[in-house]
Amino acid sequence: MGKQVKKPRLSNTCLNVVVGEYLVKGGYLSAAGKLFEESPVVESQLGDLAKKIETLPKVENEILSGRIREATRILNDYDPELLDNDQYLHFYLLHQEFIEMLKEKRVAEALDFAQFNISPKIETNSEMLAQIERSCALLAYDDPENCPFADMTKPTQRQKLLSNVFTSIFNPKDIDIPRAPTAMEDLLLYINWAYDQLDKNQVTYEKKMRFSEMDLEFLQ
Questions:
Q1: 54 near 39, Cβ under 8 Å?
Q2: How confident is the model at residue 20 (pLDDT cuts 50, 70, 90)?
Q3: Which of 5, 37, 72, 133 is the most buried (most CB within 10 A)?
Q4: Is the dihedral angle over the CA atoms 79, 24, 178, 55 positive or is it negative?
Q5: CA 47 to chain centre
Q6: 99 near 157, Cβ under 8 Å?
Q7: In contact, 33 and 53? CB cutoff 8 Å
Q8: Do 158 and 96 meet the contact criterion of CB atoms below 8 Å apart?
């Protein structure tokens, strides 16, 4: 007669931390953010990386909706020194806000905004100056979204800004994280190993999970 094995017990907190780490390292930003809202202890366990994951979906929503000033405010709340230390990112945010004003035909406001907020940054930077000159060409057309420079008015322009924000917030070490094994992946490998040991010793137990050869190859 085979031996009986007791059912292991894992706390919800332990499981949430394991799942949270998997979501963060796998790049599932929205899902990770929701988990942090439901279980603050997970966020505290994962530290600064969790804060980054929590911030990015909020910024993403504002940028893709064209609310650049609000996105800038969220970034300043996340790290007051971020835009001071990354002048290019600050310029990209200002430039996009300028474009959004032109799209909404708030021409006078856009010109005042450019004069006081953008001009001081581009005086000695030819690359930034060229981008502003190109966006000013939108002023020559009654319908900026149907002109030779309409690419700046398309959703892809906002996507480019979002990409720059992502690059600025996540350093290379963070970006490499998805390639590293997570606690969940290690746990699954341990579970499979434990199943093998129990089977070899003819222990009676309830197999809650089943792994295919493809699953195991993916985890290793």
A1: no
A2: low
A3: 72
A4: negative
A5: 15
A6: yes
A7: yes
A8: yes
Other beta carbons less than 10 A from residue 87's beta carbon: 12
Coil, strand, or helix at residue 121?
helix
Amino acid at 211: F
Three-state SS sequence of 131-168: HHHHHHHHHHCCCHHHCCCHHHHCHHHHHHHHHHHHHH
**pLDDT exceeds cutoff 80 at 17:** no
- H or E segment and range at residue 71: helix 68-78
Query: In which residue are the tokens 């057309």 written?
Result: 141
Q: Tokens 């008015």 — which residue? A: 153
The answer to whether 143 and 128 have CB atoms below 8 angstroms apart is: no
One-letter amino acid for residue 48 of the chain: D
Query: Taking a C-beta distance cutoff of 8 angstroms, is the pair 202, 2 a contact?
Result: yes
